[in-house]
Write a structure and sequence with these properties.
single chain; 275 residues; alpha/beta; TIM Barrel; nine-stranded parallel β-sheet
Length: 275
């Protein structure tokens, strides 16, 4: 199983902290580095937060090995046309290491503060579904794309230069929901990412995803199975749970690391989890 880091970018991330974390992750042997895409936390006080795309551009050009991406970029405030263009450029810059993690959006406070309309859950999912369609069409088609939806409109749009990777960067869809999120992952994703699930819950979602993939005309092996593991679940507990997660079908785990200055702790954790 691949082990990656997950950094909460809205939790005090500055350039010095990001530069240290990126360098350590590459040197310590993590498979990847992912970060949240938020303006601020769900409650005050507001603290420093590096913009997601800008920070990933630094990572792409200052590493050689690790893969990376947002976990996840909310289409409630990210324009899908611009995001597709940015993701394709980052994938090219990094020689194919970009993973485009996408979500519907959920955090009410940041939308209110910065003037974005979040909407109710059905609205978010309709917007997310449209945004996924726009992104996949723009990344995969060399011909001009037209699209008329409720939220997004394309009238002969083409991404140039074309992504070097066929169909552009891999798309990750994050979320646990069996009614909305998993069907979208079965239709559109290269990677599915669950959140804070126990091994038995993860196994249940895998069974559901396999069924949905077959219904969508795809093979179960076409979608990589990953999960974000919360620091509140316990880093020490994770070491004992890794065999259970692997048996449940997990291929990569993104471990949340909240103390952005605790580099010694990160090194110690790495030695224990990767031994």
């Amino acid at each position: 199983m691949d082990i990656s880091l997950m950094i909460e970018g809205q939790n005090g991330l500055t350039w010095p902290r990001w530069q240290r974390i990126v360098a350590e992750a590459e040197d310590l042997g993590f498979a990847g580095v992912f970060r949240s895409d938020h303006f601020t936390n769900i409650g005050p006080p507001d603290i420093e937060s590096l913009e997601m795309i800008v920070s990933l551009t630094y990572l792409a050009s200052h590493t050689q090995r690790i893969h990376f991406g947002p976990l996840v970029a909310p289409l409630s405030f990210r324009n899908p046309m611009l995001l597709a263009r940015q993701a394709a450029a980052l994938d090219d810059l990094s020689n194919g290491r970009m993973i485009l993690g996408l979500g519907a959006g959920w955090q009410e406070r940041e939308h209110e503060i910065f003037g974005f309309e979040l909407g109710d859950v059905p609205t978010r999912m309709r917007r997310f579904t449209e945004g996924l369609e726009v992104i996949t069409r723009l990344l995969s088609s060399a011909e001009p794309v037209s699209y008329e939806g409720q939220f997004y409109h394309l009238r002969g749009a083409t991404l140039l230069p074309r992504p070097r990777r066929t169909r552009g960067p891999r798309i990750l869809i994050g979320g646990n929901g069996p009614q909305r999120t998993l069907p979208l992952a079965a239709r559109c994703a290269n990677i599915w990412n669950g959140t804070f699930l126990r091994p038995e819950q993860f196994r249940e979602r895998m069974t559901t995803l396999d069924t949905l993939l077959v219904k969508a005309g795809r093979q179960p092996g076409e979608v990589r199975r990953t999960m974000m593991y919360g620091e509140f679940q316990g880093h020490d507990a994770l070491i004992d749970l890794l065999p259970e997660y692997a048996e449940a079908g997990m291929e990569e785990i993104m471990v949340q690391w909240l103390d952005l200055d605790n580099i010694d702790g990160l090194r110690s954790f790495t030695r224990r989890i990767m031994q």
